[in-house]
TrEMBL record:
Record-linked Pfam families: SBP_bac_1 (PF01547)
Protein name per its UniProtKB record: Extracellular solute-binding protein
PANTHER family: ARABINOSE-BINDING PROTEIN-RELATED, POLYGALACTURONAN_RHAMNOGALACTURONAN-BINDING PROTEIN YTCQ
Leader sequence residues: 1-21
InterPro entries: Bact_solute-bd_prot1 (IPR050490), SBP (IPR006059)
Length: 510
């Protein structure tokens, strides 16, 4: 049956037109059963036709990549690959539309942890293949970390492959040249962080005599924008916390309210972009790379790509990273991810048989070999990277971003499970970020519900979270007060939140 395809404006599809020609049938000669004194041979046919695989994934770069890497991956894996890449800012919308029309391809990447939670109901309804029992037949996939696999299971069953992520990568990327000019040291606590944001806004850090800078660039994402990292520094639990022996949602803690007050004070002072709730990730990054904003709170590992675009606009700019910001209680804390950035699923609507599923899993098994993993993550040796002491260094950050990054963003597993090269930093701040993401592990705050399920949360969690997100933004904008926020929490509870608390606690106590 021919799959129905959906096309919407702003979507970007990258289709590899360079498929390997079929290599033909390869003959192998094996001994036949002996009949008397004579033995005969039988010829077994092995189908060596490239497996056709279509993959849908979010695109985190401004342009679709050329097919250079695709052609190399096809050669290494004996496949014909079609990538459907859509802008990350609108990816969830596109994914939902494609899912609703039954037009998902064979492999579907989700955007992040929140997208995965949203898809759990469909997984539970049997719309995706369970792959856990099959992984024993694929030695490289068997190397995936069991703890991370456990965090992606639904009702104890594994349906996903994961893209590994640095567990505690969050921190501050900032303009060191601005800080040096103004005599500001890296912030040791939340008060000093606020003071830096204020100085970057009011004290003319770029020296042009105009009041045209802001302290922090933020976006319309309370998780992967600034808020979640700030909340961790303030001592807020990670989604859920244990209060008096009971699992409690983060927004019912005083630390969450204190974080809202902190961001509200930043916004009221003009030290953060006032329209952050309507700002995309792309526009947030442009505020930093254009020289308008002096601070970017998020994944410190983004420092190289942000620096690359910044120095095009401000050649004299110098960036640095920092993560150890103490909360009001004087303690350090780091928001921790559950071991995966996103996951990929295998729709039954596109994969009709287990035999077809096994062919696709065989492709990903090859993708976890060092040779193929390095091709997907680093690109072509000497063209995209060089090798020194068995470590890779990008030859040109912009070229790598354009040609390789979309595939690196789809690399399953981790550095240690796939055997891909560790990297040599392209700028000093990148090396420091690599060190800090390890140092942060000591202070990592995990989500105690990461491996738990709540039926109501699966069914209504995403819609109910929108109630809290909306109320949080309204509070920061000054449209509601604490009483209004408390009313939103009661609304959350009455519409299913109380049931979520009950169900999580029932499982937690087992």
């Amino acid at each position: 049956m021919k799959r129905k395809l959906v096309t919407i404006p702003l979507s970007i599809m990258l289709v590899s037109s360079f498929a390997l020609a079929a290599c033909g049938d390869k003959e192998t000669t094996t001994p036949a059963a002996s009949t008397g004194a004579a033995a005969t041979t039988a010829t077994a046919k092995v189908d060596n036709t490239p497996a056709a695989i279509t993959i849908m994934a979010p695109l985190n770069t401004a342009q679709t990549p050329p097919d250079t890497i695709i052609k190399e991956l096809e050669k290494l894996t004996n496949t014909k690959l079609t990538y459907q890449l859509f802008p990350a800012d609108t990816y969830d919308e596109k994914l939902n539309t494609t899912f609703a029309t039954g037009a998902l391809p064979q492999v579907v990447y989700l955007k992040n942890q929140a997208s995965f939670i949203q898809m759990k109901s469909a997984i539970r309804d049997g719309q995706f293949w369970e792959i856990g029992p099959l992984l024993k037949d694929f030695p490289n996939l068997g190397k995936l970390k069991s703890t991370t696999n456990d965090n992606t299971k639904v009702d104890g069953k594994l349906y996903t492959l994961y893209r590994g992520v640095d567990i505690a990568r969050q921190g501050l990327i900032y303009r060191k040249d601005w800080a040096d000019k103004l005599g500001i040291k890296p912030p040791a606590n939340m008060d000093e962080l606020f003071a830096m944001a204020k100085a970057f806004t009011e004290n003319d850090p770029d020296g042009n005599g105009k009041k045209d800078t802001i302290g922090i660039a933020d976006r319309n994402d309370l998780i992967y924008g600034s808020f979640k990292t700030l909340a961790a520094w303030m001592g807020t639990p990670n989604n859920w916390g244990v209060v008096d022996g009971k699992l409690t949602p983060e927004f019912e803690t005083p630390q969450y309210v204190a974080t809202m007050d902190y961001v509200k004070k930043l916004r009221d002072g003009g030290y953060i972009n006032k329209d952050f709730a309507a700002t995309s990730k792309t526009d947030q990054q442009k505020l930093f790379t254009s020289g308008v904003a002096g601070m970017y709170i998020g994944a410190m590992t983004d420092v190289s790509s942000l620096n690359k675009d910044l120095v095009k606009n401000v050649p004299t700019a110098v960036v640095d990273v920092h993560s150890m910001v103490a909360g009001p209680d004087g303690k350090f804390a780091a928001w921790a991810l559950p071991g995966y950035a996103n996951v990929l699923l295998f729709p039954k609507s596109a994969i009709k048989t287990e035999a077809e599923l096994r062919k696709i899993l065989a492709f990903f098994d090859k993708m976890m070999t060092p040779e193929v993993a390095n091709m997907a993550f680093w690109g072509i040796k000497d063209a995209n990277y060089t090798l020194t002491d068995n470590k890779a260094k990008k030859t040109d950050e912009e070229k790598w971003t354009r040609e390789v990054k979309p595939f690196a963003d789809m690399a399953i597993g981790d550095e240690d499970t796939s055997g891909r090269y560790l990297g040599i930093p392209t700028i000093p701040a990148q090396g420091k970020a690599d060190e800090l993401k390890i140092a942060n592990l000591k202070y990592a705050v995990q989500d105690p519900t990461a491996a738990l399920d709540s039926k109501t949360n699966l069914e209504k969690g995403v819609q109910l979270q929108a109630v809290i997100t909306d109320a949080t933004n309204k509070y920061i904008y000054g449209n509601i007060d604490k009483a209004g926020f408390d009313k939103a929490i009661e609304d959350w509870k009455s519409r299913g939140g109380s049931k979520i608390i009950e169900e999580f606690n029932a499982v937690y106590k087992k």
